[in-house]
Structure formats: C-alpha cells, structure tokens
Amino acid sequence: MPAQDKIHHTVIHALEKRGWRVVREHYKLYLPPKQSLFIDLLITNLESGQSNLVEIKTFDESASPSEALANALGKYLIYRQALNALKIPIPLMLAIPEMAYNTILRMSWFTPLLDQLQLHLIVINTQTEEIVLWT
Questions:
Q1: Confidence class of residue 113 from pLDDT cuts 50, 70 and 90?
Q2: Distance (Å, whole) CA 9 – CA 16
Q3: In this structure, are residues 97 and 72 in contact, taking their beta carbons and an 8 Å threshold?
Q4: Which residues, listed in sequence order, are joined to residue 43 by a DSSP beta bridge?
Q5: What three-state secondary structure class fits 128?
Q6: What is the pLDDT of residue 94?
Q7: Residue 80 burial class via C-beta count within 10 angstroms: exposed 0-12, middle 13-18, buried 19 and up
Q8: Angle 121-123-128 (CA atoms, 0-180°, nearest 5)?
C-alpha cells in the first residue's frame, strides 16, 4: 500500500464534518498491461449520494515548493487521465492544506494554469479540520 500524506486523517475529518463518508481508502486503478495506481480516497456524500475520488497532498515544508507542486499536479493529471482511459466517471479532487493554497497556488502566474488544467481542489484548514474552499 502507498504511504499516507501527513494530513490524510485531517482531510477525512474535514470531509466527515461536511457530510461525506469514506467508502474506500487507496482506491486502486488497474491499468494494462500490469500497472496499478492508488488514489487516496473514494468518498460519498450522505445526502446526495454523489461520489468523488480525492488525492491528498501535504506540500511538505522540506520539499521545494516547485517540486511539491510538480509532484501534486503530475499525480493529479496522471490519475485523471487513467480514470478517463478506464471510463470511470467519478470526479477527481486534489485536497491540499490552506497554507499551501495561499502560498503556492494563489500566485498570480499560477492562476491561469489552474483554470487551464481544470483542477478541482478541496482546501483544508489543518488546524480546525475544516474545508475552506471546494472548487
């Protein structure tokens, strides 16, 4: 099994506060010929029944911001392409801490790329375990 990000349980608590339930951790995608990928969470909204897949990225302070961003976006785009190739119609979200969102993803040069990539974010306040933004 893949390693969990530092904020894994924080993200789960924030989602549960908003009425989401974790259906499966480490949602496995089987790709030909013998490859597999793991997305952190499959969640379902208790009221609407809607499901989403969630990849969690901490943006660790020890890594350079550009490397952390490249890693997060690379995984997100690879997972989204795999879901499309496998015809799995579940939306993919990227859950990140509010601090990373405010310091890295809100830079003026990055905003057009966010729009171009059609990146769907769940921004988490890690102190209060609250969702502060869902795009």
A1: confident
A2: 10
A3: no
A4: 22, 52
A5: coil
A6: 96
A7: buried
A8: 160
* Domains with residue ranges and CATH for the chain: 8-134 (3.40.1350.10)
Residue with tokens 């789960």: 12
Query: What span, in angstroms and rounded, lies between the C-alpha atoms of 127 and 98?
Result: 10
Instruction: Give strand ranges (E) for the chain.
Output: 20-31, 35-45, 51-56, 92-97, 121-125, 130-134
CA distances from 132 to 12, 22, 95 (A): 14, 19, 11
Q: Tell me the chain's radius of gyration from C-alpha atoms.
A: 14
- Indicate the DSSP class of residue 100: H
CB 31 within 8 A of CB 51: no
Dist. CA 102–CA 95, nearest whole Å: 13
Assign 47 to helix, strand or coil.
coil
Provide the CA 14 distance to its chain's centre, in angstroms: 13
92 or 3: which leads in pLDDT: 92
Q: State the amino acid at position 4 in one-letter form.
A: Q
As given in the structure block, the two tokens for residue 95 are: 């859950």
The predicted model scores a pTM of 0.92
Q: Are 124 and 10 in contact, with CB atoms under 8 Å apart?
A: yes
